[in-house]
Input
Amino acid sequence: MSFRMAMDIGGTFTDLAVFDEETKDVESFKSFSTAKLVDGVIECAWVAARFYGMDLKELLTRTNRIMHGSTIATNTVIQRKGANTGLITTMGHGSILYRGEAMKEDAFNHKILYPRPLIPQYLCQEIEERINSEGEVEVPLREDSVLAAVHQFKKWKIEAIAVCLLWSIINDQHEQRVKEIIKKEWSEIFVSISSEVQPTIREYQRTCCVVLDAMLKPVTMSYMREFDETLRENGFKGEWFFVTSAGGVVDPSELQSRPVNALYSGPSMGPSTGLLFAEQEGVKSVITVDMGGTSFDVSAIADGVIPVTKSARVGSFPTGMTSIEVLTLGAGGGSIARVDTGGLLHVGPQSAGAQPGPACYAKGGDMPTVTDANIVLGYINPEYYLGGEVKINAKLSLQVIKEKIAKPLECASAEAAAGIHQVVNENMIGGILEMTVRRGIDPREFVIVVGGGAASIHAARIAKELGVLKIIIPKAAPVLCALGMLNSDITSSFSISKFTQSNRFDFEAVNDSLAEIEEKTKNFLAKSKISAKDMRFKYYVAGRYPRQATELEVPLTKSRVTPEMIPQLKKNFDAIYERRYGVADPTSSIEFIDWRAVGIGCLPGLTFKKQQASKGKDPSNAFKGRRSAYFIEEKGAFIETPVYDGNKLACGMEIKGPAIVEDTLTTTLVIPDYRLKINEFHSYVMEPTA
Output
């Protein structure tokens, strides 16, 4: 018996997916996340070991490969706990982080405070040098100004240095020399330079990115070392990889050289996993939602194309890094409900997390949460939370909702709980609309794939409101992103800026740029010990119509651009633009800005076993009993609702709502006028009856 594992650390829960390489079975496990992240991983691994009848050392010894996603980088930035970092930049540009993008988050809100820069102004040191936009040296590098900055940083006990010089994306000789001087003068300091981290246009994004990279280096290196040592001490002898924002995995050593790639780590796996389960139903357009304890992640995939973006932010800071496009909202099971002074009910974005958690955890939490509301409504079984591993106190849920919500609103506790349930649903619907309707996409033409331990209680009502006719809830929905990690490849992308236009295309310069980033991807895969037969390469260009400020990415059909490709490339851009925004301008030329090469090292994927069909649709052998549950659809009343054991349901069985299906790590709510079927991969497929 041998295994592959994927570990995903979230704000409330640590998820673990284990693939048995002999039986091809996938098992899901959860435990609470801990302040020391590695401890939560070990606790979750112990849960799995007990399931397999082993001790932890035997389980890890039998494990060949581990994929790991963590919020370590994102949390470090949001909580501003990164290394004390200094910035070296071109003379006259030391205020770049302070000026930012010269825009307010809300142009009409005069109360918004000026955003606090990533690092204080005094830590931004200017040096004498200048390279122009053609890559020519306007002002030679004065090395004494570099030494002066380094000596000043030493006095201030800086832990890392970021270097971002003007137009180093065209000519990096000054940045490289600055790096050499720093390492010679101060060998133990961490250094990041923008031409290696993010060699693309837009000065503020590039500066933020390289500062974040430098800030994260000591933190991620320490975490990686601790994670590796803990696994090895407990018997693990295989190889492990870390999940990146690009939706793939990399060797830990690669991440240590560019830790900024660890941002958005876990959620990046959701879209590809959602597409995997949608394709099992013969569908390629899918909205993937993942509702955990702290947040709600949503992505929209049209025609099987997973969207990527360079507009992702950590807090208020842009990075310009290519990442899988996922919108994250503060709407999870632990999201806190409150009534404002005007008598309006709000849910989130604040979360109770794992400590103290919802009131029902009995760990000191005194604020009502979505989980507390779902308990009061009868959707969650207090005796079977996480399969009965965690005992929860339903009386505490009722108490906090009565005191904090029902009393201010002057309504019954059940109505208050239903209000919390409805408000968080509307919050999640708003996120889905942001990723679909507001981008010219009709969600009614999509299916919804559900992930996360909390989402399947809310999925039917969300789909009904949106007009989506099919919901897919995989058996491994509670650990959806971890499951995606098991099915991922080693992936990294490299970008370069090279401006040209469709009507005046610079073939030589573009192809030289493509050759440069292609070489970087090949070196990356070779360093990751990927054989040539398992290497795959993809190429993209980011383009825009003239006088626009944002780009859309278009795939290239070949690794080099020829004159014959330009008309089709332009048509492809127009089609992608129309799909995103609902309009296009085929008569306009296209400006091409950034070029990207993706290197993929293929790893063994998952093989899902098909179930044999049951003898009929009758699910009575899975019937557990009835309990009182609240249904808005039944005029806001509690009704005795049949409850089924999800572990006993088989392919072909069908359940008509209202009903509740209990699995070990999640609960599925089937509302009236909906039915739930079990497909051959043991996913639940929910649809309206009419």
Residues 149 and 605 are 49 Å apart (CA to CA). The longest strand covers residues 490-501.
